[in-house]
Design goal:
The protein is an alpha+beta fold. Helix content is 29%, strand content 28%. It is built from three helices and four strands; from the N terminus they run E-H-E-E-H-H-E.
Length: 104
């Protein structure tokens, strides 16, 4: 069973988010500390909606894992990754764990 961890960084008024740092240096820190346990990573950058509405999130990161043991090992190694959040945002991420049910 493939598992996921999603981190959604709310773009509420006044929050700071450095996309360049997140998509560059932070991803390297993630690879160094959690990469051996992660099956895949993709990040969606929030964009203005079709009617001009602002994105509710700066970004949503999705990490996938091949099973519970790899997810648990990644979480155990995640301290430096979480500590690095302060270098690119002051938004507190909404975290969701899940099972991948459709992968096309």
């Amino acid at each position: 069973m493939t598992l996921s961890l999603q981190l959604a960084f709310p773009s509420s008024s006044g929050t700071f988010f450095d996309h360049d740092y997140c998509f560059g240096q932070h991803q390297e820190i993630l690879r160094q500390h959690m990469g051996q346990y992660v099956h895949s990573v993709f990040v969606t950058k929030g964009a203005t909606g079709p009617s001009g509405q602002p994105a509710p999130f700066h970004a949503i990161a999705t990490l996938t894992f091949t099973g519970k043991s790899s997810l648990e090992a990644a979480l155990a190694a995640s301290g430096p990754v979480i500590a690095d959040f302060a270098n690119f945002t002051d938004a507190t991420p909404v975290t969701q764990f899940g099972e991948i049910v459709i992968d096309s």
